[in-house]
Write a structure and sequence with these properties.
Elements (H helix, E strand, L loop, with lengths): L5 E3 L21 H11 L3 E5 H22 L4 E7 L6 H21 L3 E4 L10 H17 L3 E5 L9 H11 L4 E6 H6 L4 H4 L7 E6 L10 H7 L11 H10 L6 E3 L4 H4 L3 H16 L1
């Protein structure tokens, strides 16, 4: 097993909930999820914005912090901000979400906030997007957190290279990348390319696995058919070696999304996710 620390990303403990639906909230309580993650061995926890709102309503932010502290979960990740590049009503709504995420990040001592690209694959101008990314990065920095963009192979920022162009152009030290190995593998990114990413620009890493063949759309495949680490086709040892060569030492996120995973009791889901990732890291 590994001495490096692992973080259970939001979907790993969400139970019967998935991205893309009308209601993405987990049916499980935050306390139940945190206790399952802790019992499995995780030292970090990811929380989706919709679940953050519910948890704040149930416990208050101070109560949420206590739940994490009681369970030894000292790496906190918050997600998922979209429309930060937009104008009009979409941007107004995004700014309101960002304010809430920043408040929560400050109270919870969150290490980073995840943001996404445009999943409608609209055009993007590097200079404009860099300026718009730098602003929330500076705000995150102001509450002691970082801002990480998760590039997606079906969105307008598809690859680690495109993501790196954005964060380097934005230029803020608190801004960087969330590298989910599902997305790098499905984009055909070799481990050698990951090894070239400046370590200072890596905000988070997410481990998972998948079959060689994509079934359905990329989005359907990523949400319904991810595999536990080591149970699919990815060269995870090579990827881990490449990322360690940048100086990355964790916390390593584990993001398992599948119909099979969602059907498990949360304690079993968390245990399987931790064990398989820890074996590879060890």
């Amino acid at each position: 097993m590994t001495t490096e620390e692992l973080l259970a990303t939001c979907w790993t403990t969400a139970g019967d909930a998935a991205p893309g639906g009308d209601d993405e909230r987990s049916p499980l309580s935050l306390r139940e999820r945190a206790e399952a993650a802790s019992a499995a061995g995780f030292k970090g926890f990811g929380l989706l914005y919709a679940d953050l709102v519910e948890a704040e309503r149930a416990y208050g932010l101070a109560g949420v912090r206590s739940i994490f502290e009681d369970n030894g979960l000292h790496h906190v990740e918050l997600e998922f901000l979209t429309d930060w590049w937009a104008d009009g009503p979409r941007r107004t709504a995004s700014d309101a979400v960002l304010r809430n995420l920043l408040d929560a990040a400050e109270t919870l001592g969150a290490r980073h906030i995840k943001v996404g690209p445009d999943v409608e694959d609209g055009p993007w101008n590097l200079d404009v997007w860099a300026e718009k990314f730098a602003a929330p990065a500076a705000q995150a920095d102001g509450v002691g957190a970082r801002l990480g963009i998760e590039f997606l192979p079906w969105a307008n920022i598809k690859t680690v290279g495109e993501g790196l162009r954005l964060v380097e152009a934005a230029g803020h030290p608190a801004g960087g990348l969330i590298i989910d190995v599902w997305h790098t593998e499905r984009a055909g990114t070799a481990p050698a390319e990951l090894a070239k990413v400046p370590g200072s620009r890596i905000v988070g890493v997410e481990l998972d696995d998948a079959d060689e063949q994509v079934v359905g759309t990329l989005f359907e495949d990523t949400v319904r058919r991810r595999r536990l680490c080591g149970e699919g086709s990815f060269d995870l040892p090579g990827i881990i070696t490449a990322l360690r060569s940048t100086g990355w030492s964790g916390p390593w996120g584990v993001e398992i999304l599948s119909d099979t995973h969602r059907a498990l009791p949360v304690s079993q889901a968390a245990e399987a996710a931790y064990r398989t990732a820890a074996e590879l890291l060890g």
